[in-house]
Amino acid sequence: MRNRTPFYLLIVAVILAGVIWASKGPEAIPAGLVAGGQVFLSVLPLLVAAFLVAGLMQVLATKEFVTKWLGAASGWKGIFLACIGGGLMPGGPYVYFPIAGVLLQTGAGVGPLVAFVLAKNLWSLSRLPLEVALLGTQLTFTRFLVTLALPPLLGFLAETFFGNRIDAIRKGVETQ
Fold first, then answer.
1. What pLDDT is attached to residue 1?
2. Residues whose CB falls within 8 Å of the CB of residue 28, separated by 6 or more in sequence, listed in order
3. Sign of the torsion formed by the C-alpha atoms of 6, 7, 9 and 13
4. Is 121 in contact with 90 (CB distance < 8 Å)?
5. What domain range includes position 26?
6. Residue closest to 89 by CA, chosen among 60, 67, 122
7. Which of 29, 33, 134, 175 qualifies as a FRET site for 64, CA 20 to 30 Å off?
């Protein structure tokens, strides 16, 4: 079995079904299955779109292009480009992780990949209006300023300490 994650999730699902059976009775299990199906149907269009984008990026972003702009030898330029890309990337993990996976497989370095994912989570421009609406301008601005240096700094540190492991990281992803 290459990727064991679905197997482990099925074990968790069976355990949860057992807990539901024991605590609420067997008639409660279909409600959980229906709820899971509804979540699946609600994210299915997003998953399809994200994987289509990732597949098209794989064709568009050649290994030479990605290696030049985001590879280990791209240095600070690659880290900053990855930060900008992450900050501008719309959507949640169903969108940006497939794209990060494509970047990994087509030549991106550890540093730019870490910077991309961190910038997506800390600098997400698409999330800022909601954050301002719920938390206010002052807290949002403070949080943004405090985290501003983290994606490039941690991208640089990741490249410095783990950049030489990029081939092992790629192979590890392929064998999952």
1. 46
2. 20, 21
3. positive
4. no
5. 1-45
6. 122
7. 175
Domain count, the chain: 2
In this structure, the answer to whether residues 41 and 82 fall within a common structural domain is no
Residuewise pLDDT in 10s, the chain (176 residues):
467 778 899 999 999 999 999 999 999 999 999 999 999 999 899 888 888 888 888 888 888 999 999 999 999 999 999 999 999 998 888 889 989 999 999 999 999 999 999 999 999 998 899 899 999 999 999 999 999 999 999 999 999 999 999 999 999 888 76
Q: 56 with 47: CB under 8 angstroms?
A: no
52 is a domain residue = no
For residues 141 and 166, membership in a common domain is answered with: yes
Residue 87 near residue 39, CB atoms below 8 Å: no
Distances (CA, A) of 7 to 1, 4, 12: 9, 5, 9
C-alpha 12/C-alpha 107 separation (Å) is 35
Q: What is the number of residues in the chain?
A: 176
